[in-house]
Amino acid sequence: MNNELLESISILEKEYNISRETLLEAIENSLITACKNHYGKADNVHVVIDHDTCEYSVYMEKEVVETVEDKVLQISLADAKMMDPKYELGDTVQIPIDSKGFGRIATQNAKNVILQKIREESRKSQLNEWQCREKEVVTGIVQRYIGRNVSIDLGKVDAILPESEQIKGETFQRTERVKVYILEVKDNPKGPRISVSRTHPDLVRRLFEAEIAEVRDGTVEIRAIAREAGSRTKIAVSTSEPNVDPVGACVGINGARVNAVVSELGGEKIDIINWDDNPALLIENALSPAKVISVVADEDTREAQVIVPDYQLSLAIGKEGQNARLAARLTTYKIDIKSETQARELGLFDAMESGEYDGDYEEGYEEDYDGNYEGGYEENYEGYESPEAENYQEFPEGSEQ
Question: Counting C-beta atoms within 10 Å of the first and last residue's C-beta, which end of the chain has fewer, N or C?
Fold first, then answer.
């Protein structure tokens, strides 16, 4: 019997990640509960369990008295002397209890105590395990749609992918494997409640860490991420190693490394740029692939004035303002983009030459331009305001800036 108990405890210990001490404590409590159900009280019941062999004994302590008033707590002197002639009045006698003699109800209650303890400890173990994995990326299997939310099997627990955390236009098939970012793990009577995301910027960060050894070991650091899930992401990277190209390390040979991340994100475009502590250079890099003539950045107001060639204006702004919007989020600067013609009309070049701008200045693209390019961006652009600005307003979907 004890060998079977030892084997059962070992299985539970591995399967539910519950310590042997906790399981033996549950057995001890169940035996005391059974005694209470059988005898009506268990204040004088003690259980001794060997943690190595699972050998256990249950005994009841009784006081030796002349006249017995409570059979559960007391024993007569005559009965005590039959057990051992040395007993005298006032002594305590330990009487073994045969747990096999307990009734069905007492046994069932004891069983319920053990099962309840196993459920509680299993839930705590799962909660601790998944709380330690918050902010990580895991692979799950799509189970079903619950309304517009998606239930994802993560193994021993299920996670919920809310509609708000799904990439727009992305659909899932049952049994499909998908990588998700663990947003939050909450306690719940039925087990940990796990919320996951496919839109969080750190999903991209974790995917790069998993795919690229240099990012994983810290050789290349991801300094900032700006993401519009399902459409485009900009990442700024840097390194302290002089012989390492951070952008090249992330892109890989023929784009193999970045393409692995792009594939996992369903074809989402990823721009990787060099981080620079000079805000003007950083903004110029962030507006890539557009060429920039000049950038003036004011670190105090977190505003930047950018001038681009006329035929590069639409590229700098991007479709529906996306390129400028992501650049502003990446750099945390309010970026005002003007074409070369607009800048000359407003006298911005004269202001730069006179030193009217106090911010960091970076002179960039110098290609000759005769102003006769047709088919470029012709409408005046009043600048993009970053989400940090008070009067920030998203461009309506489908509108042309």
Answer: N
What DSSP element (H or E) covers 185?
strand 177-186
Q: Answer yes or no: do 9 and 73 share one domain.
A: yes
Q: Please state the rounded mean pLDDT for residues 223-244.
A: 95
Q: How far apart are CA 338 and CA 307, in angstroms?
A: 5
Lowest mean per-residue pLDDT among 272-286, 289-303, 309-323, 341-355:
341-355
- List the strands of the sheet with 294-298, edge to edge: 334-339, 303-308, 294-298, 360-363
Pairing of strands 193-197, 232-239: unpaired
Q: What pLDDT shows up at residue 351?
A: 58
The residue-averaged pLDDT of 294-311 equals 92
The single-letter code of the amino acid at 127 is L
Cis peptide before 242, with omega less than 30 degrees from 0?
no
41 CB burial (10 A radius; 0-12, 13-18, 19+): exposed
Amino acid at 376: G
CB-based contacts of 286: which residues, under 8 Å, 6+ apart? 234, 236, 273, 326, 327, 330, 331
Q: Which pair of structure tokens corresponds to residue 170?
A: 């992305």
Residue 252's CB is within 10 A of a number of other CB atoms, namely 15
Of the candidates 353, 372, 377, the residue with the CA atom closest to the CA atom of residue 294? 353
> What letters, b where the CB count within 10 A reaches 16 and e where it falls short, cover 326-336?
bbbbbbebbbb
Question: Which residues span the domain enclosing 87?
Answer: 2-130
Provide the CATH number for the domain around residue 69. 3.30.1480.10
Domain closes at, from 147, 172, 199: 199
Amino acid at 161: L
Give the pairing type, strands 360-363 and 294-298.
antiparallel
Rounded to 5 degrees, φ, ψ at 284 are -60, -45
Q: Do 75 and 151 share a domain, yes or no?
A: no
Q: Interhelix angle for 20-39 vs 2-15, to 10°?
A: 130
- Please, which residues have CB within 8 angstroms of residue 117's CB and are 6 or more apart in sequence? 22, 23, 25, 26, 29
Residue with tokens 């485009």: 232
Q: What angle do CA 157, 159, 165 make, to 5 degrees?
A: 170
pTM for the whole structure: 0.69
Output the six-digit token pair for 43: 């204040």
- DSSP label of 384: B
Same structural domain, 139 and 105 = no
Domains identified in the chain, total number: 4
